[in-house]
Amino acid sequence: MPSPEVMEYGRVLTYWQHEPGYLDERGRARSLTLTGRPGSFASLVRQSLPNAHAPDVLAVLRRHGLVSTAHKGRVRMLATAFLPRRAQRAQFLGYALSSLEGICDTCFYNLTTQDPEKHMRLLQRAAVSERFDMSRLAEYDAFLRTSAAAFLVKHDTWLKRREVKRALAHPGRVGHVGVGIFGFGAR
Which of 2, 25, 45, 179 is the most buried (most CB within 10 A)? Predict the structure, then answer.
């Protein structure tokens, strides 16, 4: 299983899409120099993942086809989310298992709490159609991906800005929190 640090490399893509220093005049992620002045790929990695090493992050993102290194050593974003596309899918498995753990923990807590009106742990909600026209599944998939991407980027950015930047003296104050979206279809 990949380390938690490697599983966080997708944050580089999120930060790249939302921080003004990495956007072009139209608000899109611009290509970056590998090193050098502020606004480089190395500075992006330092700001989004302070304990990561830019060459390691670049290697993983390139391996999954999420970035490319263009002429003159510039790094260009090819995808907006870390969803591995190639044979190296360990990060995807790690995310899936982490998501399942979060779903199970939330459901268990919500089902066993003594006072659900006051102590529901987290939101547990699904949108379901009992009579969906399966010939429109590709259309729904496109809609889901577009709307989910915007939602998740917004939450990833919000959560990132509220992370603890250093070790705290108070155990239990730092935890794993998040939101996930998945589509499903029953046969």
Answer: 45
Q: What are 81-102's pLDDT values in tens digits?
A: 766 555 556 666 776 787 788 8
CATH class of the region 4-77: mainly alpha
Q: CA 92: distance to chain centroid?
A: 11
Q: What is the band of 40 on the pLDDT scale with cuts at 50, 70, 90?
A: very high
* Rg of the chain over all Cα atoms, to the nearest angstrom: 19
74-77 β-sheet, strand order: 32-33, 74-77, 67-69
CA 144/CA 182 separation, integer angstroms: 9
**Residue with tokens 């992050």, as numbered in its chain:** 57
Domain boundaries along the sequence of the chain: 4-77
Tell me if 8 sits within 8 A of 41, measured CB to CB. Answer: no
**Which residues does residue 69 pair with via DSSP β-bridges, in sequence order?**
75
pTM: 0.61
Listed in sequence order, the residues at least 6 apart from 185 whose beta carbon sits closer than 8 Å to its beta carbon are: 132, 134, 137
